[in-house]
Amino acid sequence: MLSHLIINSYKKKKKNPFSLGNMRGGFPGHEVGVVVFVLLTNVAVIGSSSVGVNWGTRATHQLPPDLVVHMLEQNGFNKVKLFEADDRILQALVGSNIEVMLAIPNNMLLEISQDPKAAADWVEANVTTYFYRGGVKIRYIAVGNEPFLQAYNGSYLRTTFPALRNIQHALNHAGFGTMIKATVPFNADVYDSPESNPVPSAGDFRTDVRELSLQIIQFLYTNGAPFTVNIYPFLSLYNNPYFPVDFAFFDGSSRPVRDNGLVYTNVFDANLDTLIWAMEKAGYGDMKIIVGEVGWPTDGDKSANIENARRFNQGLLDHVSSGLGTPLRKGDIDVYLFSLIDENEKSIEPGSFERHWGVFEYDGKPKYELDMSRLHGQRGLVPVEGVAYMPKRWCVLNLNAHDVEALADNVDYACSLSDCTALGYGSSCNHLTARENASYAFNMYYQINDQHDWDCDFSGLAVVTDVDPSDGLCLFPITIVRSASRSVRARLLGVLIGFVVRHFVLWLCVIF
Q1: What is the pTM (predicted TM-score) of this model?
Q2: Where in this chain does the record put each X8 domain (predicted)?
Q3: pLDDT at 402
Q4: For a tag on the chain, would you pick the N or C end, based on fewer CB atoms within 10 A?
């Protein structure tokens, strides 16, 4: 029996085997960052289903945006979403055929909600500048990210809807309203089924935000915009030790859920149909829905590994490409994988897995193969090409060091300023010895700081080596070179030319 499909992941209560904890970014102050939804389909897709992937940039060493855009084009990816207006990425997207969802972060909602001019200025700076023939194909504006998340304690309840209105009105005033729609990416905790009747057909919006959610839905529907929701089956396992593992994936469950003749074999469909039932009861059963984030991490938890990530994401791709939809709503599903590349600067308050959602490694190499032939005929993933690495040097524990009493403090210091999440319980480097743990911590700090000699000292406890300390399971990485996009100047020139041409044409229209 499916119990409580959508719950607050952080409630201190006994977990039911079928509960779906769904608060991936569920802590105040935790921003997802720049996120890109990349369509894993070519122009010729089966039906109109599309699969995207989030491109976050919360990393100490980011790949040059032009190289990433080239990789997306090589793979046939043609949709992206940014969680904030990053000029470097927008410039790299100029002239590409990649559709963009451009977002406004939560910390800007207050100003935009209070000042229509602030909304107009934002549209002028970030939409008008890039949206022209041959420029950036902006399709949606995402206003905030999961603003009604319960962990935010109502911080954005008063600002989200006014900000949404002001942005859409600014788009309309600028002449973009029929082409670009504003939406709000919600966390799935805004709807739920009661514990007394825990099935999708009993779904409804959360009591404390129901009225406000329906006002937003009506506004979106009137403007022809989609409802966007983020769903995370991984958290079902992470937050609930009783959750049946197979129900989190798409390859069948020994304990399917039955609801008025409909059969659910995975929690993704059950979750999505809970939302559809909630919208049906509100009178918007035919509204377009986009699943803004869905994915599986590869490290940082015992359930976060390469095998599970590939199993889930491949199952998701196959499910979407089938065109079968969900038990309640047949047809195409638009979903966006989370995420494109690992981000070593993300907050780990929700869990160490937060830095390991990427389908690609920090350097743009695919972590695993995905067969996308059912979507656009391409079986594998092409890596980012032309990546520049630092020299093959590592910082490890000096076995001849004497001041071992200071080792623990130095390891803690190194980890606090780098990323040691792979050392945690159930993670890829959890098998290392105490000495190897120290070497891993020292190396992460050394690499993040660009291999400066003075960053491999640690009170004389560390030494630089050219012998790779990695083993078959645990990678001691070499960082990539910090560099700006090599084509930024060319892209920027294109932006300026497009801007001038657009305003010249408008001037001619006024004159004649």
Answers
A1: 0.87
A2: 393-476
A3: 80
A4: C
